[in-house]
Design a protein that fits this description.
Layout (H helix, E strand, L loop, with lengths): L23 H17 L3 E2 L1 H7 L8 H14 L3 E8 L9 E7 L1 H8 L1
Antiparallel strand pairs: 1-3, 2-3
Length: about 110
Protein backbone atom coordinates (compact mmCIF):
# COMPACT_ATOMS: atom_id res chain seq x y z
CA UNK A 1 0.00 0.00 0.00
CA UNK A 2 1.52 3.31 -1.04
CA UNK A 3 1.11 6.52 0.90
CA UNK A 4 -0.86 9.33 -0.69
CA UNK A 5 0.74 12.75 -0.71
CA UNK A 6 -1.65 15.32 0.72
CA UNK A 7 -1.84 18.77 -0.90
CA UNK A 8 -0.84 21.80 1.14
CA UNK A 9 -3.44 24.34 2.29
CA UNK A 10 -2.86 26.43 -0.84
CA UNK A 11 -3.63 23.44 -3.09
CA UNK A 12 -0.03 22.78 -4.17
CA UNK A 13 1.86 19.62 -3.35
CA UNK A 14 4.93 19.52 -1.11
CA UNK A 15 8.35 19.48 -2.67
CA UNK A 16 9.66 15.87 -2.71
CA UNK A 17 12.91 17.09 -1.15
CA UNK A 18 10.91 18.24 1.88
CA UNK A 19 9.05 14.94 2.18
CA UNK A 20 10.13 12.51 4.84
CA UNK A 21 10.06 8.72 4.57
CA UNK A 22 8.08 6.80 7.15
CA UNK A 23 10.66 4.07 7.76
CA UNK A 24 14.41 3.73 7.38
CA UNK A 25 14.46 0.65 5.11
CA UNK A 26 12.08 2.21 2.56
CA UNK A 27 14.08 5.42 2.57
CA UNK A 28 17.37 3.55 2.21
CA UNK A 29 16.06 1.62 -0.81
CA UNK A 30 14.91 4.88 -2.40
CA UNK A 31 18.16 6.82 -1.99
CA UNK A 32 20.78 4.07 -2.37
CA UNK A 33 20.81 4.02 -6.22
CA UNK A 34 21.43 7.78 -6.43
CA UNK A 35 24.48 7.50 -4.18
CA UNK A 36 25.84 4.48 -6.07
CA UNK A 37 25.46 6.45 -9.31
CA UNK A 38 27.24 9.46 -7.78
CA UNK A 39 30.05 7.25 -6.52
CA UNK A 40 30.39 5.61 -9.93
CA UNK A 41 31.22 8.95 -11.54
CA UNK A 42 34.53 9.10 -9.68
CA UNK A 43 34.02 12.76 -8.78
CA UNK A 44 34.17 14.13 -5.26
CA UNK A 45 30.77 14.92 -3.73
CA UNK A 46 28.97 15.75 -0.50
CA UNK A 47 25.91 13.97 0.80
CA UNK A 48 23.80 17.10 0.36
CA UNK A 49 24.89 17.61 -3.26
CA UNK A 50 23.62 14.15 -4.21
CA UNK A 51 20.41 14.47 -2.20
CA UNK A 52 19.64 17.92 -3.61
CA UNK A 53 20.49 17.08 -7.24
CA UNK A 54 18.30 13.95 -7.14
CA UNK A 55 15.51 15.53 -5.06
CA UNK A 56 15.75 12.72 -2.53
CA UNK A 57 13.33 12.52 0.40
CA UNK A 58 14.48 13.10 3.94
CA UNK A 59 14.97 10.06 6.18
CA UNK A 60 12.84 9.43 9.27
CA UNK A 61 15.63 10.82 11.45
CA UNK A 62 17.48 13.57 9.57
CA UNK A 63 20.08 14.05 12.30
CA UNK A 64 21.28 10.45 12.20
CA UNK A 65 20.27 8.67 9.01
CA UNK A 66 22.16 10.70 6.41
CA UNK A 67 25.39 10.01 8.26
CA UNK A 68 24.44 6.37 8.71
CA UNK A 69 23.87 6.08 4.94
CA UNK A 70 27.35 7.39 4.22
CA UNK A 71 28.84 5.01 6.79
CA UNK A 72 27.04 2.07 5.15
CA UNK A 73 28.28 3.09 1.70
CA UNK A 74 31.82 3.38 3.05
CA UNK A 75 31.64 0.08 4.92
CA UNK A 76 30.31 -1.66 1.78
CA UNK A 77 33.32 -0.29 -0.14
CA UNK A 78 31.44 2.03 -2.52
CA UNK A 79 32.90 5.31 -1.26
CA UNK A 80 35.93 6.57 0.61
CA UNK A 81 36.66 9.77 2.46
CA UNK A 82 38.07 12.39 0.10
CA UNK A 83 38.43 15.61 2.08
CA UNK A 84 36.43 18.40 3.74
CA UNK A 85 34.48 21.27 2.21
CA UNK A 86 32.03 24.00 3.15
CA UNK A 87 28.47 22.75 2.94
CA UNK A 88 26.09 24.08 0.29
CA UNK A 89 23.07 23.21 2.46
CA UNK A 90 21.29 26.52 3.15
CA UNK A 91 20.71 25.79 6.83
CA UNK A 92 24.32 24.97 7.74
CA UNK A 93 25.89 28.42 7.28
CA UNK A 94 28.76 26.89 5.28
CA UNK A 95 29.93 24.61 8.06
CA UNK A 96 32.50 21.95 7.30
CA UNK A 97 31.32 18.64 5.85
CA UNK A 98 33.06 15.53 4.70
CA UNK A 99 33.47 14.93 0.99
CA UNK A 100 33.38 11.48 -0.57
CA UNK A 101 34.75 9.81 -3.66
CA UNK A 102 33.57 6.62 -5.32
CA UNK A 103 35.64 3.47 -5.50
CA UNK A 104 36.14 0.85 -8.20
CA UNK A 105 33.41 -1.21 -6.50
CA UNK A 106 30.91 1.60 -7.12
CA UNK A 107 31.85 1.74 -10.78
CA UNK A 108 31.37 -2.03 -11.08
CA UNK A 109 28.00 -1.86 -9.27
CA UNK A 110 26.74 0.91 -11.55
CA UNK A 111 27.83 -1.02 -14.62
CA UNK A 112 25.73 -4.07 -13.72
Amino acid sequence: MSATVQPLLDGTFPDPVQQQSADYETWLAAVWPAFIAAAATGRTFTCYEVAHANRLPDPPNRKAHWGRLMTLLRDEGYIRTANWACSDRPTTHHSGVRTWKGTAAARREAAT
